[in-house]
Specification:
The complex is a heterodimer of chains A (about 300) and B (about 240). Chain A is mainly alpha-helical and about 300 residues long. Chain A contains twelve helices and four strands; from the N terminus they run H-H-H-H-E-E-E-H-H-H-H-E-H-H-H-H. The relative contact order of chain B is 0.18. The chains are: A mainly alpha (about 300), B alpha/beta (about 240).
Chain lengths: ~300, ~240
């Protein structure tokens, strides 16, 4: 029972990070139909910002907002430089563009920083743990869960109360009609990228907090996982991205914890089989996007 | 008097298909102008081209004396031109109030925004009643009211209505036409694409009849109602 609770905490921490990443992918996809595989490099940029801040002796409390800000700036620049010229192209063209951006950035990290993994100095408290009702929980896990909750609440308020947030939801559903209302395409898309950068930045801080290191390929694996989570939840649906992220986190953690030792090496294939099985029953994902629904009416 | 909207040799193509093949027309302030014709005649393409939803292949569009041919859609609502699109296209996952808020996106002035809310909720009390409901859950007639209300929120001087009565029960169609008359009395100029020809001509001041992407007849509504060109446009003649 304790083990189950313990693993549930872990699942929330990992699932939350996946949820934030999947949300970042979904925000951009819902508006412009682009699956941004360079999303992972936004994480890496935030990770390197944390690393350099540590080296420069900047306090962690200041390094975190700096890292998030850097990811946001990088996301907006990415859109301006790489994605705006191909905005009206097919989804495949945009996808290939995002791969190109991703690889260019990885090569830049390798050549300008290092091919090897670099240590990130973290506050000691993150590696400590606290005991709550018999459960030993890492502070970094608690931080991940709290940060996820805060971000989800922030995003919910932004999307429902802010004019720009409502405009982003409108644009996600019917981009042309949104423009007809006077909603600027450039503003909404740049806003979506800034938001996705922010989510990638927060996710990067959480990711690095578990590993204390950063390398040029750091963003690749989590963004693939986030992509799976976004599909599982319903591509382009924000609620779906959150649901898919958490579900994927639970699947991974529970399999790692409860699969018999002999089957552990098949953990990832088994996890993905579960995802495929869910998609067989719900081909549009757990919570399909509104634009998908309206097309069927 | 200068026209509110003036269109010269407007052409619209979808790949090799020429949907609109050089039409000229104008709309004066305070008028209701009806665009009539069979399916595929190019009526909707014409309206969509005016607001930049489909690209103009050639020709010019001027609004309030300014050349708006190549303007992006988002610049037209602030200038006073907007469209209530065919098929309503309300944002189904947004609440009624959020849809209306988006309609007023370009209005920065608080007093003007308040006036827009007041006007739309007075015209459509049902929208006020359902303001927190998702637009996707409204009935067809209510969605049409929302689409028109949303367009009105930008306080347009020229409102384009694409098939406002499509798919609605006869009683609701009557309400929509009453509303169009009311809007004209409030000083809104209207251009109307309609398949309900008799009602459209009853309410309109003038009309244009399109067939195969060209204007085949035009004139005061009462004259058009009697014209042979109108009949042949619907029966498939050239």
């Amino acid at each position: 029972m304790d083990l189950l609770l313990q693993q549930t905490v872990n699942a929330f921490a990992l699932g939350g990070t996946y949820a934030l990443l999947a949300l970042g992918l979904a925000v951009v996809f819902s508006i412009m139909g682009l699956i941004n595989f360079a999303h992972g490099e936004l994480m890496t940029i935030a990770g390197y910002t944390l690393m350099y801040c540590g080296i420069a002796g900047v306090s962690f409390m200041l390094a975190v907002p700096l890292a998030i800000a850097m990811a946001m700036i990088a996301a907006v620049l990415m859109e301006r430089i790489a994605f705006r010229p191909v905005r009206n192209s097919s989804g495949a063209t945009m996808l290939v563009t995002s791969f190109a951006v991703s690889m260019i950035l990885q090569v830049l990290f390798q050549n300008l920083i290092s091919t090897r993994s670099q240590a990130v100095i973290l506050p000691a408290i993150l590696s400590q743990s606290v005991t709550i009702g018999g459960l030993v929980i890492g502070v970094n896990k608690i931080a991940a869960i709290v940060a996820t909750i805060v971000m989800l609440i922030f995003l919910d308020i932004f999307m429902k109360r802010q004019k720009t947030g409502i405009a982003m939801r409108a644009a996600a559903e019917d981009f042309n009609i949104a423009r007809l209302m006077g909603i600027r395409a450039n503003t909404v898309i740049a806003g979506a990228f800034a938001l996705s950068g922010m989510l990638a930045g927060v996710a990067a801080v959480l990711w690095v907090s578990q590993r204390s290191s950063v390398d040029p390929h750091m963003g690749f694996l989590p963004v693939v996982k986030a992509f799976i989570a976004a599909i599982l939840g319903g591509l382009g649906s924000l609620r779906g991205a959150v649901a898919g992220g958490f579900l994927l986190g639970f699947i991974e953690i529970y399999l790692a914890a409860f699969l018999p030792p002999g089957l552990q090496e098949f953990r990832d294939p088994i996890g993905l089989s579960i995802v495929v099985a869910i998609l067989l029953f719900r081909p549009n994902g757990l919570i399909p996007a509104a634009s998908l629904k309206s097309e069927k009416v | 008097m200068a026209s509110l909207l003036s269109v010269q040799s407007l052409a619209v193509s979808y790949g090799p298909i020429e949907a609109v093949r050089g039409v000229d027309f104008d709309i004066q302030k305070g008028e209701i102008v009806a665009f009539l014709g069979a399916n595929g005649a190019g009526k909707s393409s014409t309206l969509n081209a005016l607001v930049g939803l489909v690209p103009v292949a050639s020709g010019t569009v001027s609004f309030k004396g300014e050349d708006i041919t190549d303007w992006a859609p988002e610049n037209l609502a602030p200038a006073g031109l907007t469209l209530s699109p065919e098929g309503r296209r309300v944002f189904g996952a947004l609440s009624v109030a959020e849809n209306l808020r988006m309609g007023a996106f370009s209005i920065k002035d608080k007093v003007a925004l308040e006036a827009a809310w007041e006007r739309v909720y007075t015209l459509f009390p049902i929208l006020h009643e359902r303001r927190d409901q998702f637009a996707g859950t409204l009935s067809g007639g209510q969605q049409q009211m929302l689409a028109v209300g949303r367009a009105l929120m930008s306080n347009p001087s020229l409102l384009l209505l694409d098939e406002p009565s499509l798919g609605l029960a006869p009683k609701i169609v009557g309400q929509i036409f009453d509303l169009i008359a009311l809007l004209r009395d409030q000083g809104v100029t209207l251009a109307l694409v309609e398949q309900n020809v008799s009602m459209a001509l009853e309410i309109a001041d003038r009309g244009y009849v399109l067939a195969s992407g060209k204007i085949v007849a035009s004139g005061p509504a009462a004259e058009l109602a009697r014209s042979e060109a109108l009949k042949s446009a619907y029966l498939g003649g050239e």
